[in-house]
Amino acid sequence: MKGETIMIEEIQPSFFRVEVPLPNSPLKFINSYVIRSSDRNLIIDTGLNRKECSDAMHSGLQQLDIDLAKTDFFITHLHADHFGLLSKLVTGTSQIFFNRPETELIEASGWWELMIAYAAKNGFPENELREAIQSHPGREFGSEWIPEMNILQDGDKIIAGNYCFECVSTPGHSMGHMCLYEPKKKILVAGDHILIDITPNIQCWSDEQNPLQDYLASLDKVNDMEIDLVLPGHRRLITDHKTRITELKEHHERRLREVQSILGNDPRTAFQVASRMTWDLDCDSWEEFPRAQKWFATGEAIAHLRYLQRKGFIVRKDEGRMTAFTLNELSPPDAKVPENIRHL
Ligand SMILES: [Zn+2]
């Protein structure tokens, strides 16, 4: 990154956005938010554990005159583009603020293996699984390191400089996702809960969870808040959060209807459903999809299938080691996901 200027924007006094590049990612960059204070600085989200991110972040922090020995961290969620670089930034005095569900996930070893087994059960071909996992950014640019976390709950407060943030638990994009809200400034630091131009990916990798249901509830929660400015984890800032939330809900309504229309009376696995869904990717066919994208697509298909199944629109048929789905014969033949899922 030498010689390249790092994009830094001062959003409020001593409150900065640092653009950290994400090479080869459609997300393009991650927004890391830095609050400078004479006491302790706070960095919100960090970047991937790779040189390009580390160079950009260090250069940005140098320009802002941030001393990492006097810096604490808040991470919105466990995904590698937010959490990965943390291991290269913390010092002996750093506090790391994080949510409980994902702390437990990180501390429990073996969750990758559980996800792999779950993907296979949902029809992901065994011969493609290894490659999919190897190219997963979480595997490639995450970190094995398990730090000591300072656990925050919904409603807890963090003070940084002149800002007093409230924690807003927003599960959906990930199971413990947490935003920070500054009520006096009406600013929401949103992580990947609300993004513009791109839709936050909602994936499901276990039988117990219903992440799309959680996500829609978390959108409603934020919709009702007084917000003038959303600071998202990627892309540009958002001034009208309600309009964007409506668009995101409409997106998932369309998705649910699409998944429902793909199913018939013959059982289909989530992988088969994913292969028939429409994806905004520059590929001519599902076969050409990069393996990692097939992985994300399958996780997203499972999230939508789970939601439809719990609402009774479709039924799950476990056949041997495989999980598949059909339309629910007991629901009326023309039963469709209503236009407004808010009322479901
Ligand atoms: Zn992200």
Biggest sheet strand line-up: 1-2-3-4-5-6-7
Q: Please, how many helices?
A: 10
Specify the oligomeric state.
single chain
Note the gap between the termini.
Answer: 49 Å
Number of strands: 14
**Which geometry do the CA atoms define?**
globular
The amount of helix comes to 25-40%
The hetero molecules present are: zinc ion
Query: Compute the gyration radius: what is it?
Result: 21 Å
Q: Give a short account of the largest sheet.
A: 7 strands, mixed
Order of helices and strands: EEEEHEHEHHHHEEEEEHEHHHEE
Tell me the fraction of residues in β-strands, as a range: 15-25%
The low-pLDDT segments are: none
The computed structural class is alpha/beta
Mean pLDDT: 91
List descriptors:
globular; 14 strands; 21% strand; binds zinc ion; 10 helices; 344 residues; five-stranded mixed β-sheet; alpha/beta
Protein model, in words:
The protein has 344 residues and is of the alpha/beta class. The protein has ten helices and 14 strands. The strands form three sheets. It has a seven-stranded mixed sheet. A five-stranded mixed sheet has the order 8-9-10-11-12, with no helix packed on it. It starts with 7 loop residues before the first strand and ends in a 17-residue tail after the last strand. Bound molecules: zinc ion.
